[in-house]
Specification:
- The complex is a heterodimer.
- By secondary structure, chain A is an alpha+beta fold.
- Chain A is built from 9 helices and 33 strands.
- In chain A, a hairpin with a 5-residue loop joins β21 and β22.
- In chain A, α8 packs across α9.
- By secondary structure, chain B is of the alpha+beta class.
- Chain B has 2 helices and 1 strand, in the order βαα.
- Chains A and B meet through β4, α2, β23, β26 and β28 of A and β1 and α1 of B.
- β28 of chain A pairs parallel with β1 of chain B.
Chain lengths: 637, 44
């Protein structure tokens, strides 16, 4: 939408109203993290700013477009709207974006089939011309998260939108993440030059290896290569698909002595948030005891030369394929990340290779489920993940339904675990986030597919038992591949996680490997999140105000023994009335004043014209009946 | 033992619904399916 007045500040104040479902609150916070990683838009709890976004649960998923300067601007995340891309979509509206197919040049790229549209919904396919809508010099984007799907507002089963390039027929309507063009437009609109969370990404395609340096003091160097005789045959970024391209870093352990090391350090990095997630791919074609150590070298005033600290030791790296690793860091001072390869005892026909390193100030997933040889599984069988433990101690596993014809389903099961006697049952407010990783080398360009569910301890099953009760009580007996028996609780998830077609797109399946990232965290702290700034103490006025409910954020106070509502006001808006039930604004006042003035002017003008006319008529009649007056009065009017 | 597919609860009830499907099913007649126009302008 054109107009600087519709822009929000880069850090948007928000309130998560208590009406929101717990799962929705967690999903919204995850959506905020995507904005922080990929754009310069940040979010902070409202602390009294004039305008803020109030996210609440009403019917449906909706938002206004742009900053409306109304003080409390509402955005609804209702039932079934608690999906991360839905939240991203609605906030893009709030940031000033219309739907993609309402662009002025829409008809060059899609055809609207008008007779397939629900009666009365044709106006939803209007176009905004380029006097009110700016496409920011970005091409039409079939992959936009703001695009209708092909079945939008259909009156039957046929598509209402047909793409002029047929390959995009089923691409429109994606709800996975921001597309590259979504980010380009948002970052152009808000003049973004950096983001809060992104730190570095390196696929080693450029000769400068992203400014990484070889340490001194080690016995060997990492080499930038495109293939190794003993493996890997190609890099992870391009998987050998690009001729004369595709590089990675390799530490040769086929020669040299046991204990030889090679250390590769990043450029100096400057943390903003104090917590980081490092991820990278390793390929082991060396000896079984070859391993990698991850360090940070932190530079402080006390130690300007840097302090090297071991963060993680990666042993027993599986051989023969690229493996994804995550390392959690918590650095607050400027630092480097260092990768040390170590040659272990024993023979080696290759070495250690590293590729596609990403560093961001985000939370790492708690667990990774690596599924190999995925293509043969898709469309044929269902799979269960290995068992995992959440930080609270709950054991769980994931069930992937792959034998449906069109969609992949994903479900979260609590299972019996070693800590069950010490845990709270039914399991309260644990949010499980399941992410199908888009393995693009650059974290900023990934469109990973994510869904979250939250355990509600009050939820009951059809037979009256608590859904999230102890698996040994409400679950069924199952067996691990090694024959060990355990109890598996009922699964909770979705049959529509992602379509088969989308699953095969992008880089969800890479080298026939798929990664499902898993996080299970306690979100009980989100139980009450609507934090209205309230400097007025209420404890001493409990009795008088106990029967008074002020609306729209008004605060009850006692004045001369009577309960009164103090109503919130902003720069150009205010609430008024006994319970702050009415809203006023300077916009309204100006409109009323101007329209009153114009009306009075118009009425007076009419009166004046009529008076002049009547008076002229009167004097003309007198003049025609008294010629002697003509000479004196003919110029009177 | 119940088959894996039967021992799960599907929060989407077998449907793959988009934002606009959800809002239409609720009978909301929002602008372009999910855009709230401000009433302030109309009142003024």
């Amino acid at each position: 939408i054109i107009g600087d007045n519709y822009r929000w500040p880069h850090t948007i104040p928000y309130v998560l109203e208590d009406s929101l479902d717990m799962n929705a609150k967690g999903v919204i916070l995850n959506a905020f993290e995507r904005y922080r990683l990929k754009t310069c838009i940040d979010f902070k709890p409202w602390s009294g700013e004039a305008n803020y976004i109030s996210v609440f649960k009403e019917s449906g998923c909706w938002s206004s477009v742009g900053n409306r300067h109304v003080g409390k601007q509402q955005l609804s995340i209702g039932d079934n709207c608690d999906r991360i891309a839905t939240v991203q979509h609605e906030f893009l509206h709030a940031l000033g974006f219309w739907h993609e197919q309402s662009r002025a040049d829409r008809d060059d790229y899609v055809t609207i089939v008008w007779d397939r549209i629900l009666s009365g919904r044709e106006h939803n396919f209007n176009i905004y011309d380029d006097s009110v809508s700016d496409s920011l010099n970005v091409p039409y984007d079939y992959t936009s998260v703001m695009h209708y799907s092909k079945t939008a507002f259909q009156n039957g089963t046929e598509p209402t939108i047909v793409t002029r390039i047929s390959d995009f027929e089923d691409v429109i309507g994606q709800r996975m993440d921001f597309s590259d063009y979504d980010l380009l437009k948002l970052n152009r609109l808000y003049n973004c030059s950096s983001s809060l969370s992104f730190m570095d990404s390196c696929d080693f395609e450029l000769d400068n290896i992203c400014g990484m340096i070889q340490s001194s003091g080690d016995s060997a160097d990492w080499q930038r290569v495109s293939q190794v005789l003993g493996g890997p045959e190609n890099d992870h970024s391009n998987m050998g698909q690009c001729k004369d391209s595709g590089f990675f870093m390799h530490f040769n352990t086929s020669s040299g002595n046991a204990g030889a090391t090679a250390m590769l350090e990043s450029r100096i990095l400057y943390p903003k948030r104090g917590f980081q997630c490092l991820e990278f791919y390793l390929y082991n074609s060396g000896g079984e005891s070859d391993h990698v150590k991850i360090y940070t070298r932190e530079y402080t005033a006390a130690h300007p030369e840097g302090v090297l600290t071991l963060r993680r030791e990666i042993n027993e790296i599986p051989t023969g394929s690229w493996q994804l690793y995550y390392v959690t860091l918590q650095v607050t001072e400027k630092f480097r990340v260092a990768f040390e390869g170590l040659k272990g005892p024993g023979s080696s026909s290759g070495g250690l290779s590293i590729d596609d390193i990403n560093l961001s100030e985000t939370r790492c997933p708690h667990h990774i489920w690596h599924i190999q040889n995925f293509t043969q599984l898709l469309g044929s069988q269902n799979v269960y993940s290995p068992p995992f433990y959440s930080p609270e101690g709950y054991a769980y596993q994931i069930y992937l339904n792959l034998n449906s014809l069109t969609n992949v389903g994903i479900y979260f099961h609590l299972i019996s675990g070693a800590n069950d006697d010490q845990l709270q049952w039914p399991c309260p407010w644990q949010q499980a986030t399941m992410t199908l990783l888009d393995q693009n080398p650059d974290i900023r360009q990934r469109m990973s597919n994510q869904r979250s569910i939250t355990t509600d301890p009050t939820m009951t099953d059809d037979n009256g038992s608590y859904f999230w009760d102890r698996p040994s009580k409400v679950g069924v007996v199952a067996s691990f591949p090694n024959g060990t028996q355990f109890s598996r609780g009922r699964g909770y998830g979705t049959s529509a996680f992602i379509t088969h077609e989308r699953m095969k797109s992008r880089e969800f399946i890479k080298g026939d490997d798929v990664y499902i990232l898993l996080t299970v965290e306690d979100i009980s702290y989100l139980n009450s999140t609507s934090n209205v700034p309230d400097p007025v103490p209420t404890s001493t006025i409990y009795n008088a105000c106990s029967e008074v409910e002020c609306q729209n954020g008004g605060i009850c106070t006692v004045h001369e023994g009577r309960a009164e509502c103090k109503c919130p006001a902003g720069e150009d808006w205010w609430y008024m009335g006994q319970r702050c039930e009415k809203r006023g604004s300077t916009h309204d006042t100006i409109v009323i004043a101007v329209s009153s003035t114009v009306t009075v002017f118009a009425v007076m003008l009419i009166i004046t014209i009529v008076s002049v006319y009547c008076t002229r008529r009167k004097y003309r009649k007198k003049a025609s009946s008294n010629p002697a007056l003509d000479a004196q009065n003919q110029h009177a009017f | 033992l119940p088959a894996p597919g039967e021992f799960v609860k599907d929060i989407d009830e077998g449907l793959d619904r988009d934002i606009f499907d959800i809002n239409e099913d609720l009978g909301l007649d929002l602008f372009e399916g999910d855009i709230k126009l401000e009433e302030q302008g109309k009142n003024s």
